[in-house]
Amino acid sequence: MKEIFERRSIRKYTDEPISAEHEEKLLRAAMQAPSAGNEQPWEFIVVRNKETMEKMTEGHPYSTPLKGAALAMVVCGDVNKQKFNPYPYWVQDCSAAIQNLLLEAQHLGLGAVWMGVHPVKEREDELIRLFGLPEGIIPLAMLAFGHPAQTVDPIDRYLPERVHKEQW
Ligand SMILES: Cc1cc2nc3c(=O)[nH]c(=O)nc-3n(C[C@H](O)[C@H](O)[C@H](O)COP(=O)(O)O)c2cc1C
Q: How far is Cα 61 from Cα 68, in angstroms, rounded to an integer?
């Protein structure tokens, strides 16, 4: 619960690398997410190569955190793994996985930020081309990770007026 309330997007990182152990912990947390009918339609591209990260920024206008990241991920959905066609639950499944990544990063003392890709077609196409994604694999988001080089204060976003008891 502490991680939920203290997590903020971190966009500046030190040069310290992220260990293989932490990388696996992040991915284990991601794949522990709930999914519709337990379809688990996620696929993860892990990037440590700085040149590739630089290329990832080219098709996305709000992705500068990647320039200083120690590790990046592209979270993709595999539409072929959908159980409830034509309903695209993969977006919700993969979003739950992304939130787990952010919370695990917070737990490990790492900084992270979620950068949206799908449903912006141009951003999707850039990543499909860059990583040679097969048919039916759709990039939902990019994430940048690193040891934090900034602190961002926790913020209370609770709005009681957004709660509708029994009826709207
Ligand atoms: C679907 C989605 C897309 C986002 N895209 C970007 C992005 O492209 N670039 C970025 O720097 N942050 C992006 N963010 C992070 C948000 O800006 C951030 O979560 C929001 O401002 C709240 O701040 P916090 O994460 O510090 O609590 C995205 C977040 C979500 C959930």
A: 15
